[in-house]
Design brief:
By secondary structure, chain A is of the alpha/beta class. Helix content of chain A is 43%, strand content 15%. Chain A has a single domain (3-292), classed as TIM Barrel, CATH 3.20.20. The chains are: A alpha/beta, B alpha/beta.
């Protein structure tokens, strides 16, 4: 059983971070960053060509992380692989020792650096959950028997910021019923959005939710997220507030802001953990952890 | 209808510059409605070619360019003029162009248009793609075609990328799943829809090339 699964099942608060594999074969800086992150987080997610920008694959990054005693979460999208490739890659990932998955539909190629590529989307993320569930039961998507069973811990995504919210909640419910073991949310800026979602999610038993957060570093970063990241709505008051701060104050504010949301989640037992997205320096993760006094 | 768009002159030129005499064929069906295969389109191209010092030997508009034998019959009347031409320029969709190609393997057959999609016409010469001929129609379930109108072919509801109900890929367009969801809601079908999983889709029905012999009867 993975540490992530154990902690979530025990209702321990989990901290995970997101690492984007490098654009190129040189993994030195990714490994350096991982070395610095050691013992700080419960798991590390490796993204699957985020924003449809071509990078080193998540599976290789997960394998390198395993060799350093990390617990990786393999992110897999439906954008670039048909059902044959998805299953084949997942069987390969399992053989390499990868157990935690986070499956999602994936940003469209129009956001990326290969805009002319053919989007695959053979299956959607709901069907992908069914697919992984089947692999765990020793059969492929179409019911053919497999030599052995996988033991994946299945993560799915949900966007509590979505407007209108009901179609998003129904998909969450569908993913849960199909067998998602835990959920990771899109990045949250307003706790009320999270509460609105959790009010719905708590109608179901044993729902495990890790809340996506970012540590705001610069005005540029916040504006980029507001404009370019699908499904993310940065509230106007936050943009205005950050725009009035100088650069040093923004860094401090970013850490305080992420910490305050995390503390509120922890104190009110709103969710089972937080996931820090789009990190740049490990130092900011350390400062954040120091603020919430989980680790030094 | 099949929506087609005139190639730009600079796109067409590399294919036709080396020839001196041309025979032009239009189509009275979809290409005429698109303004890419009607008399006006033919005469415009003829005028341009003649201004360039080229010779247009003749032209005609096929009744239905994708109807192979009918077009062959119509074309036979122009055999002499076609024989005298270096090449044939076809002002139709890709299907119509290939009808002509079937009869003249030794003569260059050049499409004047690019074929875009199956389109609905909202206003005159304004087309929207609604159906991508995927071979397995879900419209009875979703009301609008999510296979065509969702850039990610989502079958079970929206992705997480929409903002204020607008599509992540084109913010000027409403997310089709928000439209479909409203339809399901109005019909009281939301719970029924989510009782099961739609898909995985049988994409083998959309794999090209396809053919079909309409001899089956609906009982």
């Amino acid at each position: 059983m993975t540490l992530l699964r154990t902690k979530l099942l025990n209702d321990d608060f989990v901290i995970t971070v997101e690492i984007t594999p490098p654009k190129g074969p040189d993994v030195t800086s990714m490994l350096d960053r991982l070395e610095e992150l050691k013992y700080l987080t419960d798991a590390v997610n490796f993204t699957d060509n985020p924003s449809a920008r071509m990078r080193l694959c998540s599976m290789a990054a997960c394998k390198l992380a395993l060799e350093m005693d990390f617990e990786p979460v393999l992110q897999m999208t439906c954008r670039d692989r048909n059902r044959i490739a998805i299953q084949s890659d997942l069987l390969g990932a399992h053989a390499l020792g990868i157990r935690n998955l986070l499956v999602m539909t994936g940003d469209h190629p129009m956001w990326g650096d290969h805009k002319e590529s053919k989007p695959v989307y053979d299956i959607d993320s709901s069907i992908m959950i069914k697919l992984v569930k089947n692999l765990n039961e020793g059969k492929d998507l179409h019911g053919n028997s497999l030599l052995g069973k996988t033991d994946f811990f299945i993560g799915a995504v949900v966007n509590p910021n979505a407007e209108p919210i009901l179609p998003q909640l129904k998909r969450f419910e569908q993913k849960l019923k199909l067998g998602a073991d835990f959920f990771q949310t899109q990045m949250i800026f307003e706790i009320d959005n999270l509460k609105r979602f959790m009010d719905f999610a708590n109608k179901f038993d044993r729902v495990k939710v890790i809340v996506g957060l970012i540590i705001i570093r610069t005005k540029k970063m916040l504006n980029y997220i507001a404009e370019k990241i699908p499904g993310v709505i940065v509230p106007r008051w936050l943009i205005d507030k950050v725009s009035r701060l100088n650069d040093d104050d923004i860094e401090r504010f970013g850490i305080d802001f992420a910490s305050e949301i995390t503390m509120e989640i922890m104190e009110n037992k709103l969710a089972n953990g937080v996931h820090i997205m789009a990190i740049s320096k490990v130092d900011e993760v350390k400062k954040f952890l120091n603020c919430i006094k989980i680790r030094v | 209808m099949i929506v087609s768009k005139k190639k730009k002159i600079e796109e067409l030129s590399p294919y036709i510059d080396q020839y001196n005499s041309y025979f032009l064929i239009g189509c009275s069906e979809c290409a005429s409605l698109c303004g890419t295969g009607d008399e006006e389109a033919i005469l415009e191209l003829k005028e341009w070619l003649e201004k360039e010092g080229k010779n247009v030997t003749g032209w005609f508009i096929a009744k239905t360019g994708c109807q192979i034998l009918g077009t062959k019959r119509e074309m036979s009347k122009f055999k002499e003029l076609i024989d005298k031409s270096d090449c044939i320029l076809v002002l139709s969709c890709g299907a119509g162009t290939q009808t002509i190609m079937e009869f003249f393997e030794d003569k260059p057959i050049i499409p004047v248009n690019d074929t875009l999609f199956i389109g609905n016409m909202r206003r005159f010469k304004e087309f929207e793609e609604r159906c991508r001929a995927c071979g397995e129609c879900f419209l009875a379930i979703t009301g609008v075609c999510v296979v065509t109108l969702c850039p990610k072919n989502m079958l079970n509801g929206p992705c997480g990328g929409y903002k204020d109900g607008r599509c992540e890929v084109n913010l000027h367009k409403k997310c089709v799943w928000i439209i479909a969801f409203n339809i399901l809601e109005k019909r009281g079908d939301i719970d029924r829809f989510y009782e099961s999983l739609l898909g995985p889709k049988d994409w083998s029905k959309a794999n090209s090339p396809r053919d079909y012999v309409a001899k089956e009867k609906i009982n």
